[in-house]
Specification:
Layout: E1 16-25, E2 35-41, E3 54-57, H1 63-73, E4 80-81, E5 90-91, H2 92-98, H3 107-116, H4 120-132, H5 135-143, H6 147-153, H7 161-165, E6 174-177, E7 188-194, E8 197-200, E9 203-206, H8 208-216, E10 222-229, E11 243-245, H9 253-265, E12 271-273, H10 279-284, E13 292-300, H11 313-326, E14 335-337, H12 344-358, E15 367-368, H13 371-374, H14 381-395, E16 397-398, E17 422-423, E18 428-435, E19 439-446
Parallel strand pairs: 11-12, 14-15, 14-18
Antiparallel strand pairs: 1-2, 1-10, 2-7, 3-6, 3-10, 4-5, 8-9, 13-19, 16-17, 18-19
């Protein structure tokens, strides 16, 4: 894309200083989760976005944490430092606030603390960690700590300001899915963000960017550095197309944008999104309730990066645990939506797993692979196939496995609902999905 001469182009390397103009908590009082709605004003930036894009934000670390690090190091904070690849110096405090991450120390960090400590006991302890600790145990030790923990645990380690920042990783921008449509809000970008707070090593931790937005950015001041990250994740061009919204990892934000845009454009296509909520909440808001999620289980057999465990032991364990969680007997399941990738390994071992759990009842359960119609949707497969189970309960129709002409007998000899959908009353349905690395997940739905 070309720009007229003299035009300022804002991007990841040259972010725009936007204004945060609205901050509103969405979670109800007393909720463990703190989800907030933010509105970012990008007027005057020339930035144009589309549904599905993300907003990149450069956050600042918590000032109290930065001061604690400086004090722990025995420094003042006004020491000049030169960040890597920078052409100008800045103060240590500015560098720690905006340039570097104060989390995720590494084995290299421990070595530096070992080399810089003046305490014999500290050096011996660090030597033992570095050379006599199992890799998994050392990794867990590091994951539980941030730099302030190491500074307090090893007070004998002394660093100059420049030496210390050279240990740190660059503070990376965070990307948040945009929750608004440019048709409705061309100059304002809406975000829906869960503010992250947690605890490790007995110390309260803060998600850097989420708490920056939720607690530290002043409203209506041009101090928030932002840029756009474009995505191929978007609406179909044909507004008459029906869509099912499934976005693992994205949260609800982009779906809000898609819905907002389709309503604004008067699109004729229907939209569905799978919403899970408590029965009490659904009834209170007068929602249409399709069924109840009554059971869930996951296992990991870690047999192979792509192949399931021979005999389907990992999946069988997940099936049993899910039925137990749902408080259902095997003969109460009326339909199974299989992982069903149509590969020799998967189909054989998935069939074996179902037989081992459902026994003599297994041949009586309609079990189909809707991947035969959708293809493998990877991260979206589980959500789509859960929705198919819900619709089977609602409609009393079981979807087929299409293009099934010659089952791989004798290994695959169950009822796979070949080629034609079937009218069948479904009170309880089960969906199973397998993932790379040996992951097995099962969900169970039941009519109310």
């Amino acid at each position: 894309m070309t720009h007229p001469p003299g035009t300022v182009v804002y991007d990841k390397n040259h972010p725009f200083l936007a204004r945060l103009v609205e901050r509103r908590r969405l979670s109800k009082p007393g909720s463990e989760k703190d989800t907030q709605h933010f509105v970012v004003d990008v007027s005057g930036s020339g930035l144009t976005y589309k549904c599905g894009d993300s907003l990149g934000i450069y956050a600042a670390n918590d000032a109290a944490q930065v001061d604690a690090v400086i004090q722990g190091l025995g420094l003042e904070g006004d020491e000049p430092v030169t960040p890597p690849k920078a052409t100008e110096t800045c103060s240590l405090r500015e560098a720690l606030l905006t340039r570097f991450s104060l989390a995720q120390p590494t084995k290299k960090t421990l070595q530096a603390f070992h080399d810089h400590t003046t305490g014999a006991d500290e050096r011996a302890h660090l030597h033992n960690l570095l050379h006599n600790t199992a890799p998994a145990e050392l990794q867990e030790y590091l994951e539980q700590r941030e730099y302030i923990d190491l500074i307090e645990e090893y007070p004998g380690a002394r660093f100059g300001a420049q030496a210390f920042i050279e240990l740190l990783r660059k503070l990376q921008p965070r990307l948040y899915s945009i929750a608004s449509s440019p048709v409705v809000h061309p100059y304002h970008i809406h975000l829906t963000v869960a503010v992250v707070r947690y605890e490790t090593n007995g110390r309260a931790r803060l998600g850097v960017c989420s708490t920056h937005l939720g607690e530290r950015v002043p409203l209506h001041e041009p101090v928030l550095p932002v840029f756009l990250s474009n995505s191929h994740f978007g609406l179909p061009e044909d507004g008459a197309r029906d869509i099912i919204l499934v976005g693992p990892g994205t949260g609800i934000a982009p779906f809000r944008a898609f819905a907002q845009e389709r309503v604004a454009q008067g699109a004729a296509g229907r939209m569905w999104v799978l919403v899970l909520e408590t029965l009490e909440h659904a009834r209170r808001r007068g929602a249409r309730i399709y069924c109840e999620l009554v059971g869930y289980a996951s296992t990991c057999d870690a047999y192979h990066i792509t192949s399931p465990d021979p005999g389907g032991a990992g999946l069988a364990k997940a099936l049993r645990k899910a039925l137990k969680d749902a408080r259902l007997e095997p003969q109460q399941i009326d339909y199974i939506n299989a992982h069903g990738t149509s590969t020799p390994y998967n189909d054989k071992f998935e069939t074996m797993a179902v037989k081992s759990v459902f026994g003599d009842y297994a041949p009586k359960i309609p079990m189909s692979s809707t991947k035969s119609m959708t293809g493998h949707l990877l991260g979206a497969a589980g959500g789509i196939e859960a929705a198919i189970c819900v619709k089977a309960i609602e409609t009393g129709e079981v979807p087929p496995t299409i293009n099934l002409e010659e089952p791989d007998l004798p290994d695959c000899d169950l009822d796979y609902v070949p080629n034609v959908k079937r009218t069948h009353k479904v009170q309880a349905a089960l969906s199973s999905n397998l993932g790379f690395g040996g992951h097995n997940a099962v969900v169970v739905f039941k009519a109310l």
